[in-house]
Design brief:
single chain; 8 helices
């Protein structure tokens, strides 16, 4: 069955949740349904965004202020949405994004402790009501995720945070999933890759099939 176009999907999760492998799986699933897929990521996705990503991920002699970090995230996101995501949707492509605004509520909100209302006001100012149609949250216990990423080699500025930071990130993600359960679907990423992808496929099948029943005008 062919899904409606355009369709915007984000994949969320903290470190070690397996986003890279599963983004590829989602891409293949969408392509099998006849959708041309634009795969992108945050922070990044544009030339300017990738430069800002380097600033955010590199370790600096003096720490980046939490408010500065938040503003850089949204600066990169605005460029990304206007230069990549909206144009791809306008061309009828499905957009698949490795993290989006939910990550800011989780990392800068939950992890850094920035007030939710401040992030919400910034989101409203920069993006309006623009959100993914569907979000897959790959959830994994923090200790398991950290064990996975330590096998990769050198860690970036976020990955060196302590376990309590990532516990707050995970908690914030799960709170978002509970609050926005029509859009955000939690996937148990602690299982085998095959089991994880069976969960993802079930969610995609349900939502993409439902999308054929009605073709609403884009909210943006």
């Amino acid at each position: 069955m062919r899904t409606r176009f355009p369709f915007f999907i984000s994949v969320e999760g903290s470190e070690g949740a397996g986003k890279t492998s599963n983004v590829n799986f989602v891409k293949e699933t969408l392509q099998a349904r006849g959708c041309k897929v634009c795969v992108t990521r945050e922070p990044g996705g544009t030339a300017i965004g990738e430069l800002l990503r380097e600033i955010l991920l590199e370790k600096h002699e003096k720490p980046i202020n939490d408010q500065t970090e938040l503003l850089i995230m949204f600066a990169a996101r605005v460029q990304h949405v206007e230069q990549v995501i909206k144009p791809a949707l306008a061309k009828g492509e499905c957009v698949l994004c490795d993290r989006f605004t939910d990550a800011t509520y989780a990392y800068q909100g939950g992890g850094r402790g920035i007030d939710h209302d401040r992030i919400s006001a910034l989101e409203k100012w920069t993006l309006g009501d623009f959100k993914p149609d569907l979000t897959l949250l790959l959830d994994i216990p923090v200790a398991v995720g950290m064990q996975r990423i330590r096998k990769r080699g050198e860690l970036d500025r976020f990955e060196v945070e302590d376990l309590s930071f990532f516990e707050r990130v995970r908690s914030a993600y799960l709170d978002l999933a509970n609050k926005h359960n029509e859009r955000i679907h939690t996937i148990d990423a602690s299982q085998t890759l095959e089991q994880v992808q069976l969960q993802i496929k079930a969610v995609l099948d349900r939502h993409l099939d439902l999308s054929t029943a009605k073709h609403p005008e884009p909210s943006w």
